Amino acid sequence: MSPDGGPISVRVDALTHRYREALALDHVSLSIPAGSTVAFIGPDGVGKSTLLGLIAGVRRIQSGGVTVLGGDMASRRHRDAISPRIAYLPQGLGRNLYPTLSVVENIDFFGRLYGLPASERRDRITRLLKATGLDPFPDRPAGKLSGGMKQKLGLCCSLIHDPDLLILDEPTTGVDPLSRRQFWELIEQIRTDRSGVTLLVATAYMEEAQRFEHIVAIDEGKILATGHTSELLARTNAATLEEAYIAFQRPERRGDRTPLLIPPLPHSDGPPAIAAENLTKRFDDFTAVDHVSFHIERGELFGFIGSNGCGKTTTMKMLTGLLPASEGQAQLLGQPIHAQDLETRMRVGYMSQSFSLYEELSVRANLELHGRLFGIPEQELEGRVTTALTHFDLDGVSEFLPPALPVGVRQRLQLAAACLHRPEVLILDEPTSGVDPAARDRFWRLLAEMSRRDGVTIFISTHFMNEAERCDRISLMHAGRVLAIGRPAELRQSRGAENLEDAFIAYLQERETENVLHTTREKFSDRDDPQRSSPAIKRSQSGESLPVYGSALASLRRTWTFARREALELLRDPVRLAFALLGPLILLAAFGYGVSFDIENVHYAVLDRDQSCESRLLLEQFSHSPYFAQQVPLNDEFEIDKRLRSGELRFAIDIPPQFGRDLLQGRRPEVSFWLEGGNTFPAETARAYIEGAVLTYAKDRYRRLNGRATQLFLVNVEPRFRYNQDFRSVSAMVPGTIMLLLVIFPAMLTALAIVREKEIGSITNVYASPAGVSEYLLGKQLPYVAIGFISFVALLASSAGLFGVVPNGSVIVLALAALVYVFAATAFGLLVSGFVSTQVAAIYATSIATAMTAAHYSGFLFPASSLEGMGRWMGLGFPSLWFQTVSLGVFAKGLEASAFIPEFTILVGFGALFLALARLVVHKQAR
Prior knowledge:
The protein is α/β, with parallel strands linked by helices. Helices cover about 45% and strands about 15% of the residues. The chain is built from 34 helices and 24 strands. A six-stranded mixed β-sheet has the order 6-7-8-3-9-10, sandwiched between helices. A six-stranded mixed β-sheet has the order 16-17-18-13-19-20, with helices on both faces. Strands 2-1-4-5 form a four-stranded antiparallel β-sheet, with helices on one face. A hairpin with a 2-residue loop joins strand 14 and strand 15. It is globular. It starts with 7 loop residues before the first strand and ends in a 6-residue tail after the last helix.
């Protein structure tokens, strides 16, 4: 029970969590009453996301206890039971969305995942879209929405199943002020109409946190303070929540508490440091920067304010020469910007949005490398590095590696590197994002000092309005266009606003009045029209029964939901689809036409030093054969090696003097055959043909000279082939190539399926939903099994059309074998995907494992019966050998289905085994 006697929604007891050596949470304890609103405040990396993830059940508890909605979150049974009552929106714009799916398709996926009937889904989707103002864009892909629209869509997806606990991890970071305000108005209205919902929010914006009933301040994995905003302000005698947060930190982390006063900018003559006129940048049909114009004076602190995706970073990259402009002109220090103008670029320092230095080099080594790259003389370099370490307060961490440093210290390191070559212009892209307030204050003191003392022109982008107030002038930017430019006070006064955020919102409303959301209470009220009640506000009155999450039918529906979504994403991704369908066909043609062990027109030359009748008769065995093509005769034995090395000849014949006479006199003369053996397979076949030609000549000459066949050949071997009687290598190559391609491509595609969701973050939807890992894996696998089987049909048709190779046996038997083979291959891809953490690693691991095993240990290049030792066990332990047996048996031998019962059984077993192992590797919670 809570202190006021009410129920407790969340209780955390002595919770500790580590990521290897990094301590994310340190014995955290907390109680949250049901129906309350709680804001978790603090910069990036202090443990907010970890704490919310543990409460949501998406992370595994290491030490301590977490009780949510009356049960222990360490219990899998309890997590599965309450997951329909929790909604979790992870950190990052649209991180729980699927970019290629439309607005409606994203919400529909979550509705299906939570088992809502079709009519209920349609009704709730309609009302949610109206409530959030997304109803004009039902068919727009999520990846093409603005930041604010993505977060509203993410909220719709989270609310469709009527949660009792709503957890939002920094839902408005990077969103423009207008969308942020509309987002919180929507949340407030939802809570008004559904007072029982408990709301937990992590935020980096202190002004947002003041909306909430309770504040939880976190730093270094510990709770600094809890209470209402007014209580925290009273305890610290602070005017703002940001000042209160700094006061709660350890003294050594508080920084300088004196107010930062930046002197006025002195007047400067001459051309501006940066000038942009109608600067435009297009990426295909998307305009990222649209006719932007501004001038920045020398020594000025110029702020660039706007949401993520509005074009700030693109503009900065054009001004540094990193990106060419599509239209317009820009000048830097009075010179036109050219990527090749290194002299001007040496006068500029650029600090990217994310950490861009070398994490494997120490702080000092990074600065030394940066200095050398910018041409600082060696005799000056050490002094400049030492000065930079002192000036930016990096002396104590000079030998540390960047990953071991706090975010604020890493940002100071990047700034030190950008200033090391003493630039005249400094371009900083969101340098304080994720940095704690005290570190941000120290950072700005350094910028003010460089601007006023050293006359450095500073062009900086930021999301924080209190930082924008410190700039001499700012540019408000939205959707690739500049809304207004001026001094912060002027912009406030021009719109009659109390603060800069209100002024920014006023400019946004002027520019995009058609997109303004009228989130008034009347819009959400259901008094006039009960059917307009948002499902996020009031539970459905449709009378349909709530979904039964544990039933077998519900499990099948969730599996189909994952399969349907994966299929939609695959169909909307032309690159992956082309790779899946065209890639195997291209490689089949390449293998069929380019790889052949047949012997035709093998080039050879002769050095006949005998010139006798017998030597000519021997050479006729080669010149009259369709397998060989005679070239210009050799002049001497030294020419043999030269022409073999050049690749002109595959073999050479050297007939010694007196060959004919010695043969007729029974002296057994020797003839030299020089065979190029760089490619062993054709060389071995050519050797056999040469031996056959010589043997034929010898038998024929003996019969002509003696009038009877020789008695020396007691056994006359005449080979006849039971299968592939034409002895065409393509007849053996095509079935093996189909085997090879049906394991490589499906496995690689499926291996990307899980790890791709790990990278973009949508795997969290599985962690937080009622779905089980088996349902998720099978749903992910099914579309790729279908694609693999379609690929098999295309390969079968191509083998007949291009090479005339058709199965001699049952096509149905071969198709069934291909289906279970693709099932095993895709299951293997899921297994690999569960182990690795990046798509690059998944591609490498899958391609190497499948290609090597299938090519070398399946009977494709070497007979399976010839495999010995470890090679034999590798062949038997992978599906390719077993499918190759079926493929060759159907194509060449025409065997019946009964002959392949062991192979079918083993292939199905491989698929089940790989899927079971993947189930053990892929967990329902992140570590």
